[in-house]
Amino acid sequence: MTSLFPKLRAVVDKGVARVLIDNAERRNAFDFSMWRALPAILSGLERNDEVRVVVLSGAPSLPFCSGADISEFSTVRATAEGGRAYEQSNVEAFDALSQLGKPVIAAISGFCMGGGMGLAAACDLRIAAEASIFGIPAGRLGVGYPPAAMKYVVAAVGPQTAMDLFFTARRIGAEEAKACGFVSRVLPKEGFDAEIDAIAAGVAANAPLTLRAAKAAIRAAAQLPKALSFEDCETLAAGCFDSADYAEGRKAFLEKREPKFTGE
Prior knowledge:
6-stranded mixed β-sheet
């Protein structure tokens, strides 16, 4: 399966959906059409039972995302009204990533700047290649972030680091991003895509209902925007114990073999 959006391509293979950011002309900046397209792409992946995990990354040889397309700041984002509409499209994209019922991995290589850092912050798991560069240059551009978008960054790095990044507009490397909790792992650049594929395949092999319940519970515990209630999270967790996958997991453990989960 491949999506019809030219600058965002979704390719599904063996339970893993790769959403590829492909805007080479603008150094992989996210333009207005891409912000609006991402929720629709993710909605399709949510409905696709073949998909167990989603990986968001730059297309081959391109950086993760250099931020929002600055060339649009004087057009679609030229007024307060236009700015609000643009920011709303940003928030809807962030929410679509965060609220997807399936795990979402941000595979970060190269630049992860501004809105790109916001996209990564909305993902569940962030893994970076060595030499990746992070930053939020809003203070040098005069743009504002609404609380709904800011909450993802604060949840990822905490209020002190968020203040630091926004106030100074400085750039940080992959190791500092790991130290502040923005990424969970830093991997060698050589073989990075292959390692991401292996990690995603491992996630895809796990019990889908367990992963859905875990994601919902973590989002609720972190008080992320539009998280499920604790009661709804408990319902999802309880459903795992009534599932065929729970029986399969126990049986596979006793038989000393790999489980084969169906999501039922």
